[in-house]
Amino acid sequence: MMNAIQTDATETDGTYARRAQDGDQRAYRVLVERYQGMVFDLTTQYSHTTADAEDLAQDVFLRAYQKLDRLRNPDQFASWLYGIALNRCRDYAKDVRRDTHPFSATEQTAQNLLDSDSSQHEALETDDRSKRLWAALDELSETYAVPFLLKYRDGLSYKAMSKRMDVSVGALKVRVHRARKKLQALMTETTHDP
User: Fold this and answer.
1) Does 75 map to a domain?
2) Of 43, 52, 53, 176, which has the fewest beta carbons less than 10 angstroms from its beta carbon?
3) Per-residue pLDDT tens for 47-103?
């Protein structure tokens, strides 16, 4: 772990992100320290060991650093970073064929097979719905997918989401609502496709 850097608590993420975009590595270290907990929390959901979660988190910060020039709104650094982390974790899950999220097809199917009231047919239907849900989530922009996942997968309150993403509670409620509507439409489309 890095040594803590003296920072000004009144400085925003945007200030440090702009400095990092200008090549200030110390500014990027400040952002890493601010968000290493958030990223590590996410990576632990996708990996079985602490070492894997740490490696994955390190990879997320490396990728974010390499893509800093693509960050259009430095004031939205937290949600941008979360999007990168989420995409990297999804890729990791696909690479190792494991998915440990509450929405995962594996977990839902296993639960249904263990449930004495569920038939194997129902388990397969749940597996299919889960796959369609993740496919639909991939269709959403990060603006809508990230708040939706924070709310329904991670169980965060709007207040906690607002603090983490530096977006107003009202805006987050709108984004989650729109994400739900879009997901419903996408799920309905895939249900009716031949």
Assistant:
1) yes
2) 52
3) 878 898 899 999 999 999 999 999 999 998 988 999 899 888 888 877 654 333 445
Length of the chain: 194
For residue 138, being part of any structural domain is answered with no
Domain total in the chain:
1
> Cα dihedral angle (107, 144, 70, 85), rounded to 10 degrees?
-20
The closest of 82, 75, 86, 89 to 15, measured between CA atoms, is 75
Cα separation, 116 vs 137, whole angstroms:
30
Question: Quick check: helix, strand or coil at residue 102?
Answer: coil
We report the CATH number of the domain holding residue 58 as: 1.10.1740.10
pTM of the model: 0.52
Q: Rounded to whole angstroms, how far apart are CA atoms 183 and 79?
A: 20
Identity of the amino acid at 48: H
Residue 57 inside a domain? The answer is: yes
For residues 193 and 188, what is the distance between their CA atoms, to the nearest angstrom?
Answer: 9
Tokens 């388990």 appear where? 123
CA–CA dist 36, 42 (Å, integer)? 10
Q: Is residue 70 part of a domain?
A: yes
Question: Residue 15 belongs to what domain range?
Answer: 1-100
pLDDT tens digits for range 162-172: 877 778 989 99
